[in-house]
Amino acid sequence: MNTINYLTRILIDFGALKALRAECAQLGMVRPLIVTDAGIRALGLLAKLMHEISELEMVVFDQTPSNPNEASVLAAKSLYVKHQCDGIIALGGGSSMDCAKGVAIMVSHPGELKTYATIEGGSTKITDRVPAIIAIPTTAGTGSEVARGAILIVADGRKLGFHSWHLMPKLALLDPELTLSLPPLLTAATGMDAIAHCMETFMSSAFNPPADGIALDGLERGWRYIEKASLNGDNREARLHMMSASMQGAMAFQKGLGCVHSLSHSLGGINPKLHHGTLNALFLPSVVQFNQKDPTLQSQNKMQRMAYAMGLGHPSNAGQEIAQAIKELSDRLGLPKGLKDYGVQTQQFDDIVFGALKDHCHLTNPVLASAEDYKDILLHSM
Nearest to residue 95, comparing CAs of 20, 51, 159? Predict the structure, then answer.
């Protein structure tokens, strides 16, 4: 049975950060743990946040890595326990928000982190004991601020998903002003992450018409504004629409994702230095072409509807046209042309495929991929 559930509260506007003090009071937070990273501190964004809640007894963990792992979760947990914190504020991209969700699990539940991974049957073990999370994104990509899940690298090296409605942030505070300082290439990579979320969830096999509508509108916004935001970071209109596209992609992917993310999660676990959004951009064209043979996608004209949202008209071979348009957009944005340019080698294929087949996104792709299918996608993505 499909569950359609959009639960969290969202504030989105320039200057929304000024509402943080009142929102903390509403949630009863007086000693929040702020989970962020060193780059956010260096950009001065942490100082802006701290200014808004200067009267609170806040504690800062600013060592979130680009791919959050169990070690960072436990380090932040130690601060939370030591200072008797009563809530979490996540400031940053998806890494900080995912790390915050890991901390929320570990400060309120016993045992190892992997116990609560979706693939380990851990979702039902996550309870309402988790502390409240306020999520404040500084990129427009992951949409983790409105997602019930987190992706974390556990101690044994696996990159796993953790999913529970209890992990949904109590508040998503979206202030596009915080993204104005984002560099062009990171704007592009995170923006492609948002576009991938919208496209892949729209293609996903689960029945969720509201999610499809949200995803399609998000795709149209993301495709229209990603270049404007990347080429002119001060374009406030573009920044607002990209932040909305990011949020919409994550609101929609409650429905499920697919092979793009199965592969990105697996490869990101093998090499945590690789950026998730960039990987999604590299895999997306080949997965679109792989998916176009699905009869349900054809009967619902989903490829044609995506092509129209992207401004491609009504091509006769929509899957091929979409794949080519994604490659051309990535090229204009300065992203890698293929996995080979990103340092991936064919010798890694077996390990990547092994992880992809076990990933939680594997089963919600519209076409169930075999090991050979995954190898073909990898080869065409090189």
Answer: 159
Q: Tell me how far apart the alpha carbons of residues 382 and 380 are, in angstroms, rounded to a whole number.
A: 6
Question: How many beta carbons lie within 10 A of that of residue 68, not counting itself?
Answer: 28
The amino acid occupying position 48 is: K
> Which residues share a beta bridge with 260?
none
Give CA–CA dist 303/146, Å, rounded: 26
Q: What digits encode the pLDDT tens for the residues 339-380? A: 999 889 999 999 999 999 999 899 999 999 999 999 999 999
Burial class (CB in 10 A: 0-12, 13-18, 19+), 205: middle
Instruction: Find tokens 């202030």 and name the residue.
Output: 175
pLDDT digits over 111-136, tens only?
999 999 998 999 999 999 999 999 99
Which backbone phi and psi does 294 adopt, to 5 degrees?
-70, 125
Contact 329, 227 (CB under 8 A): yes
What is the three-class DSSP state of 142?
coil
